[in-house]
Structure formats: C-alpha cells, structure tokens
Write a structure and sequence with these properties.
Length: 261
C-alpha cells in the first residue's frame, strides 16, 4: 500500500510525526509512506488552493517533501509532481492539534486535504486530536490518536463505505480529549454545531501605532447536539463522520423548485 500523508500544522508538527507512525504501521514492511506537507502552518485555510501564485516545493529527504502552500496544494503536488500523475492508495491528513468537529470542519485545512484527495478519486481520512485539560496533563497529548489511530483506519478501510461517484465519500475522525485508556470507543456521528463558538476579531495596536486584527475562535468544549461529533468527543468517544464535498441542500431542491415555479 502506498500512503500519502499531509497536514495543516506544518511539516515539523508533532501530529505529523504521530501520523507517520500510524501510516507506517498500516503500510507494513512492503508498503510506502510518502509525506508532502506545508512548509509552514496552514491552519484555517480550509480547501484553499494556491491558484494565483506559484509555490516553492522542496524535497527534504527520502519520500519527504514540503510545499509553501495549503494542504490541498500538497495533495495536488504529490499526485502530479511527486507521483507524476499516479495516485496513492490512501491519503491521511493530520493528526491535527485540536479538534475538527462541528463548525471547525468548514475552516480546517486538515479536512481540506482529505476533501481534495476525495475529489481526485482517492480514499481519504482526516484525523484530529481534541485537546483539553486531560490531554494537557499527559506526557503525550496525542496519546489517544497514537494508540487508537491505526485501528480506526483499519475499520474504515475494511468496513466503511467508499463510493465511486463524483463527490466521493471521505471520513473525518476526531479523537476525544482524554488519554488512550480512558477512551470509551468509537461512534459514528453527524457534524454538529456550537452555537456559541463564532469566530470574531480582536484589534491590537503595534508599537508604531498601526492597527491589526487577530481572528479569535470561540469556546471549544461546548457540546453540540446529542449524538453529534463534538458531543460524543466530550463524552470520551472517537467520532467518525462520513462527508462529501457536495454543498447542495438536497432536502430543499423539490420545494424550492415548486416555490419558484
């Protein structure tokens, strides 16, 4: 198996090291793990691609590359430059430092990379480690993902639904903010919504008097509706959410057509 790994925290992020271990275990002695990741942190870029400017692309070592671009750029660079148009058997994105549950999905570069892989016809899984008080007290805050990641991916590869339609299914996995031993298991969950976690701006003045705005996120430990991703994460479960890039509100199509005549 040839596995491509990437992330949005950057080529030197500790979560990528965790994902390397997971992918190496999955690939086995006869497989290959290739890394193409952003040279710098790209959190919050979602499914952005560097359409209007080129990106510096460099090989750092055997099967290891860095791109001055987004996670989705890294997937494209891997397919069309590193692999010369061939496709890997699997794309894994992460392990993100922090959850990509609920509305965070829409901003996540980690999820954006998996989405791009799915659009390219490749099985893809995004993986994120929810952080909190319990993980902060651990010697390894990625302990849950490190110990349970390979097992979750094997279950998805063996028993998950992998479609071949235009907007292929990909998966978003979030590990709970607890230690590996305290993890209660796995739950399939819909994407939730935190009603008090809107992004906002906070102004700051530089020493020279220039005004800058920092983007600030809302509280991350507010539960979403029961049974949805962030809610089950906060209960100690690994959440698995099937996703598609199709943003159409299919439930409204028939009624809207009638209303508009």
């Amino acid at each position: 198996m040839r596995i491509l790994i990437t992330n949005d925290d950057g080529i030197n992020a500790p979560g990528l090291e965790v994902l390397t271990e997971i992918a190496t275990e999955l690939a086995g002695p006869e497989g290959e793990v290739w890394t193409v990741a952003p040279a710098f942190e790209q959190s919050g870029v979602a499914h952005c691609i560097s359409y209007t400017h080129p990106m510096l692309f460099a090989q750092l070592g055997p099967r290891r590359y860095a791109a001055e671009g987004s996670p989705a750029d890294c997937v494209l660079a891997a397919i069309y430059d590193v692999f010369q148009g061939a496709k890997p058997d699997l794309v894994l994105s992460g392990v993100n430092r922090g959850n990509n549950s609920a509305e965070n999905v829409l901003y996540s570069g980690t999820v954006g990379a998996a989405m791009e892989a799915a659009l390219q016809g490749i099985p893809a899984i995004a993986l994120s480690q929810f952080m909190g008080r319990e993980t902060a007290a651990l010697a390894d805050p990625f302990e849950c993902a490190r110990q349970h990641g390979a097992e979750v991916i094997r279950k998805l590869l063996g028993r998950g639904t992998w479609t071949a339609d235009d907007y292929r299914v990909f998966y978003n996995v979030n590990f709970p903010p607890v230690g590996a031993a305290a993890t209660k298991g796995l739950k399939v969950a819909a994407q939730g919504f935190r009603r008090d976690a809107d992004f906002t701006t906070e102004p700051h003045l530089s020493p020279s008097g220039k005004r800058f705005l920092w983007i600030q996120g809302g509280p991350q430990h507010s539960p979403t509706l029961p049974g949805t991703d962030a809610a089950v994460n906060l209960e100690g479960y690994i959440s698995v959410t099937p996703m598609r890039a199709d943003l159409t509100a299919h439930d409204l199509l028939t009624d809207l057509a009638k209303q508009l005549g």
